[in-house]
Amino acid sequence: MTLEWRVAPGLVSYPDAVATMEERVRGIREDGADELVWLVEHPPLYTAGTSAAPDELLDPARFPTYQTGRGGRWTYHGPGQRVAYVMLDLQRRGVDLRAHVARLEEWAITTLARFGVHGERREGRVGIWVAHPDGREDKIGAIGVRVRRWVTYHGIALNVAPDLSHFGGIVPCGIAEHGVTSLAALGIPANFAAVDRALKESFGPIFEPAPVKAAPSEQLIDVRSATMSMI
After folding, report:
1. For site-directed labelling of 224, which of 75, 95, 146, 153 has its Cα 20 to 30 A away?
2. Tell me: the pLDDT tens digits for 2-35?
3. Nearest 5 degrees, angle CA 53-CA 77-CA 231?
4. CA distances (Å), 10 to each of 7, 21, 152, 225, in order?
5. 173 labelled catalytic
């Protein structure tokens, strides 16, 4: 099994993306298909995770909405945001969901650092955050994970240059007291080619296959289709 790295041209519909991920997840587990990192850009849309509250969708008519099996609440995807869908076999890389999420976080932080942005984790606030000199904190990267039979899918979303007003139709991730930002809003004129290159160069050292180890008992809850509350 090897790792395939794919960049989708144009805008990919959300249903097509989910169908592609689910087919590859099945293929990895049942047929020995290659693992896949798939970089996409979506048209404007909102997705609801398994913990999404209906009243956090503030403008239901603004963009199409989709229920999704990943953990978390409402999030936005759209042009100018790079979404990296990550389909990996944790039986090769260590059967530890929390370690996988930590690697996704580190991947996003390392990628942002290549553009001079100091991304940070925050206790109780999933995602990657940027602190401003005046004390404000904005989210620049989101993380969402689902695992089926120890194969991961969904992944991370980095705000490169999206229309940030589009986040106003939801309470992003259920967090109303903080905002969102992007590389463009921070004054960094990065394009997808540069971001994609940084993602690819940062990936290997963080996601090297690890020896398989027994999962902690609390992580053995429905390994056929597990979710982590992200994004």
Report:
1. 75
2. 999 999 999 999 999 999 999 999 999 999 999 9
3. 50
4. 10, 17, 24, 30
5. yes
Average pLDDT over residues 38-47: 98
- Cα separation of 121 and 188, whole Å? 21
pLDDT in tens, 173-189: 767 778 999 999 999 99
Nearest alpha carbon to residue 92 among 212, 216, 215: 212
Mean pLDDT across 202-212: 78
Amino acid at 5: W
How would you write 47-94 as a 3-class SS string? EECCCCCHHHECCCCCCCEEECCCCCCEEEECCCEEEEEEECEHHHHC
Residue 182 tokens read as: 């992007």
Which of the following is catalytic: 173, 183, 198, 199?
A: 173
Enumerate the β-bridge partners of residue 4.
Answer: 36
Length of the chain: 231
